[in-house]
Structure formats: structure tokens, C-alpha cells
Amino acid sequence: MLRRAEAGDQEAQVDLGSMYSNGSGVTRNDDEALKWYLMAATQGNARAQLLLGAVHLLGRGVQQSGEEAERWFRASADQGNASAQNMLGSMYRDGDLITRDYEEAVEWFQLSAGQGSYEGQYNLGLMYDEGRGVTQNDEEAVRLYLLAAEQGYANAQVSLGAMYSLGEGVSRNDREAVKWFRLAAEQGDARAQYNLGLSYASGEGVPQNEQRAYVWFSVAVAQGFMEATSSRNGMRARLSPQALQEAQALATRCFESNFEDCGE
Questions:
Q1: Residue 30 and residue 189: Cα distance in Å, rounded?
Q2: Confidence band (pLDDT; 50, 70, 90) for 162?
């Protein structure tokens, strides 16, 4: 690969840069990663431009620079790279390193979503959900969340579950809400785990089960979602000593199995 990269092979240069960036097969070296990304990016390689934008966005081996990140993301996005289009939209939406512009963000999210990017679909859905850069539209938000959720994107799954739970943009359906919360929870999304715990605690969309509520609250807390702490503690007080012991053992098994063995 080194020989091909040195001979000017763009894909080899990008792959070599990624190896140095991740420490895969070589000692991690941000300077070497930057060197190889830059070689490919200046030849017009869209993937290298995307990765170079990320380097400047995160400040990996260089001083963090919104201007440079925007420059390289735009170069890649202008070539049709859906990930770069999404990243550029995110920069304009967040306004942390460049001037916030919701309308510009929407334009880039639309381009990304139109290519089937689940991140672009989700982010565009958020814009419709919150009415930023577009007229607020729950139905359009649901449509976009569904597109991303069906691709397995946990953020979209939990947002779609919330729309079903609240009846926003779609008829309220607690079973459908639980379906999407569970899919995201099993991927490790702590917010979905908390929401699934709430569903078990209330019996909305599933039979009420205080042990399972405790399990999902516990794993959410274990992942740092502290909003679930009071719910977990309240559920602990409701369980008998034996039921609590069983629930704690299941919560441990659930967490250690990477959410594959949670008693479902």
C-alpha cells in the first residue's frame, strides 16, 4: 500500500491515512494521517476531503478550524459525497465554529437525505420536527425519521418512538413506540433504554413489568443517562428483596451482553 500511495494512488493514500489515524496496523500518527489525506484531497478525492474536514473539525494533529473544516467538507459535498453534505449541514445547524445558518443547513441535509443517507434523513427530520430553517411539520419529520429508522439508525428509532408515544405527526400508538424504543435500546441508546423502562413502568404498549422497568432504567444509568436515576431508585423501592435481586442480576447480564440478553 505504501508503494502505491507514494506513486500517487489516491485510494491507497486515503487508506494509509486512515490506518495512521486509527492506529490500525501501524502506530497512530496524526501527522502522517494528515499528510496522506492532504495528498489525496488536493488531487480531488472526495473521501479524503471528507476525512480532512473531520481532522480540522476535531483538531486532530492540527489546530481546530471551522473555516478549514467547512472548506474541505464543501469540496467533498460539492462532488456529491452524502456524508460531507451531512457534516456541512451539521456545522451550519450547530453554529459552533462557523456562523449558524439554518436555511443553509437544511439545503445540505436535503442533498444528503436525497441520496439515502440515514444521518441526512434524521437531521432533516429534526429540522422539520423543531421548525428550524423550514416550516415546522410533524408529518414530514415522521416520514424522515422512518426512512432513517428503517436503516437501523438508533437516533431515528428513538425519535420515531417518541412521535408515536406522543401522537405527533402520526396517530398515537404505544405498541409502535415500544417497538422502536426497543430496537434503539438493544443498540445501546440510553435514551431509548430509559423510554423503554418508562413503558414497562406504566404498562403503555407492553404489559406492566416493574422488574424489566428496573433493568432498563439501570442500564441507562450505567451508560451515564442520569435522568433515569430517580426512576430506577423509585422502582427499586417498589420491588421485593427477591424481585430486586433478580432484576439486578438481569441488569448486569443485559449490560455485560451488550444488551443482547435483557430478558426480552
A1: 30
A2: very high
Tell me the whole-structure pTM to 2 decimals. Answer: 0.92
Give Cβ neighbours of residue 167 (< 8 Å, ≥ 6 apart). Answer: none
Alpha-carbon span 184 to 181, nearest angstrom: 5
| Cβ proximity of 56 and 72 under 8 Å | yes
Show the 3-state SS of 202-233.
HCCCCCCCHHHHHHHHHHHHHCCCHHHHHHHH
Dump pLDDT digits (tens) for 57-89.
999 889 999 999 999 999 999 999 999 999 999
97 pLDDT tier (thresholds 50, 70, 90): very high
Integer angstrom CA distances of residue 211 from 113, 145, 152, 226, 235: 40, 30, 27, 19, 8
Domain spans of the chain? Answer: 1-73, 188-264
DSSP 252: H
The number of residues making up the chain comes to 264
User: What span, in angstroms and rounded, lies between the C-alpha atoms of 13 and 40?
Assistant: 6
- Own/partner contacts of 240-243, CB < 8 Å, gap of 24 or more, are 243/210, 243/211
The number of beta carbons lying within 10 Å of the beta carbon of residue 184 is: 26
Architecture (CATH level 2) of domain 1-73: Alpha Horseshoe (1.25)
Residue 9, pLDDT above cutoff 80? no
At residue 12, the pLDDT reads 75
Is residue 69 within 8 Å of residue 97, measured between CB atoms?
yes
Instruction: State how far the Cα of 171 lies from the Cα of 165, in Å rounded to an integer.
Output: 9
Phi/psi for 26 (5° steps) reads -140, 165
Instruction: Output the pLDDT for position 212.
Output: 96
